[in-house]
Design goal:
Mean pLDDT: 80
Number of domains: 1
Number of strands: 12
Low-confidence stretches: 1-33, 272-292, 317-322, 328-332
CATH class: Alpha Beta
Largest sheet: 5 strands, parallel
Order of helices and strands: HHEEHEHHEHEHEHHEHEHEEEE
Radius of gyration: 19 Å
Shape: globular
CATH superfamily: Glycoside hydrolase/deacetylase
CATH architecture: Alpha-Beta Barrel
Distance between the termini: 34 Å
């Protein structure tokens, strides 16, 4: 079991029982408060078909400046979720990244698993990184991604009791999180267990992107080989008709950024879930938060919900931040 999948399951186990009974949504849900650090994580499933958003974690690394320039040349505005301790003292590099049209965002100070440490340590991890990174945020946009994607109600509540509640997050991902089903994740590709080439790891990313058709892509600029992989993937993705957008245009993220006083780019229109094997008890579809049957798949067409099929079983639980799944009955 991978590091990310294991931590996702661990985080799920720490969510209060009432939350674990409901199917995990693929987009953020308003939990009734005004704070932007929601109990559920954001993803990019609202993006149009063949639309990707590149995000880079854990840096800056030795080749982050090179990567930033390449992405600018390719017209791929991205988000760099940085560790505070890695960014400290690198003001010129952070300024370059911003000038290249990218966003800098908070990925904690030292990448501790927030669901496994005490509340004050959680607050310290985010606050110390904020002190280094916030001077480089564009448009007053405060975005946060939890290390390992490990997130739960206790962590969000702890942060929402501090000035860090201005952050929008936690921002999860749709592609690149695990080494399963022939898919790959760069944080694992370069380790001793796999030791993949940039091309082999990139092929796994391409396979997952093709299967999902859209979404936020998780990458790590702290690894040199990731930069080579991105340069290998981008021409192919463009040839296949993929477009690239910055994460702040994802509708649910965009709305909460604006509510928090930020000035993101204009949001893209909300689109339906891809016609796949996802189900959910509630979600933002057709421009509104709606309650829906967890045993039914839906699509959004002409601003109205339409049932696609009935699940054989009610949702099969997946890690926090990952849509739950069902199998459609044939002929329905």
């Amino acid at each position: 079991m991978s590091q990310y999948r294991l931590l996702g399951l661990f985080a799920l186990a720490l969510v209060p029982a009432a939350s674990t009974l409901a199917c995990t949504t693929e987009v953020a849900q308003d939990d009734g408060g005004e704070d932007a650090l929601r109990q559920r994580q954001y993803q990019g499933r609202e993006l149009p078909s063949k639309t990707l958003s590149f995000t880079f974690d854990d840096g800056p690394g030795d080749r982050t400046g090179e990567l930033s320039k390449y992405l600018k040349e390719q017209g791929i505005p991205s988000v760099f979720f940085m560790m505070g301790k890695n960014a400290q003292g690198k003001d010129a590099l952070l300024s370059q990244i911003v000038a290249d049209g990218h966003l800098i965002a908070n990925h904690s100070w030292s990448h501790q698993q927030l669901t496994a440490i005490g509340n004050q340590s959680v607050i310290d991890e985010v606050t110390k990184a904020d002190n280094v990174l916030s001077p480089f945020y564009s448009g007053n946009m405060y975005m946060f991604r939890a290390p390992y994607g490990a997130w739960n109600a206790r962590v969000s509540t702890a942060l929402n009791g501090t000035p860090q509640k201005r952050y929008v997050g936690s921002i999860f991902w749709d592609n690149g999180g695990d080494m399963t089903n022939g898919y790959t994740a760069d944080w694992a590709c370069w380790g001793s267990r796999y030791n993949y080439s940039a091309e082999k790891c990139g092929a796994g990313y391409m396979a997952e992107i093709a299967a999902r058709g859209r979404g936020v892509v998780l990458l790590h600029d702290i690894h040199s080989r990731t930069v080579d992989m991105v340069k290998w993937m981008v021409p192919q993705l463009k040839a296949q008709g993929y477009k690239f957008v910055r994460t702040d245009v994802v509708p649910s993220i965009n709305a909460d950024l604006r509510a928090a006083g930020a000035t993101p780019l204009p949001a893209l229109p909300i689109t339906s879930n891809p016609a796949s094997n996802e189900c959910s008890r509630d979600a933002v579809l057709c421009g509104a938060t709606i309650q829906r049957d967890p045993s039914t798949l839906y699509r959004c067409e002409n601003r109205r919900l339409h049932p696609v099929c009935t699940c054989r079983d009610v949702c099969r639980p997946q890690p926090v931040g990952t849509p739950d799944e069902c199998t459609c009955n044939e002929g329905t």
